[in-house]
Amino acid sequence: MQIHAKGYVKTVFFSALLTIALSPLFSHADELATLRQELSSSNAQWTAGETSISKLSSQERRRRLGAVFPSGVPQGSKAFTEVPFSAPPALDWRSNGGNYVTPVRDQGPCGSCWAFATTAALESKVLIKNAASGVDINLSEQVLLSCSGAGNCEAGGYPSSASNFLVSTGLPNETCYPYTAADGICSNACANWQNSSYKISSWSYLVAPSVDSLKNAISTNGPVVGSMVVYSDFFSYHSGIYTRTASSTVEGNHVVLVVGYNDTGQYFIAKNSWSTGWGESGFFRIAYSEMNSLVQFGYWTYVYGNAVNPAQQYPLHVSIGVFRDGHWYIDTNQNGAWDQGLDADITWGMIGDVPVMGDWNGSGTKKIGIFRNGMWYLDYPGTGTWAGCGAPADPTKDACIPWGTAGDIPVVGDWNGNGKAKIGVFRNGMWYLDYPGTGTWAGCGAPNDPTKDVCAPWGVTGDQPVVK
Question: Residue 1: pLDDT band by 50, 70, 90 thresholds?
Answer without folding.
Answer: very low
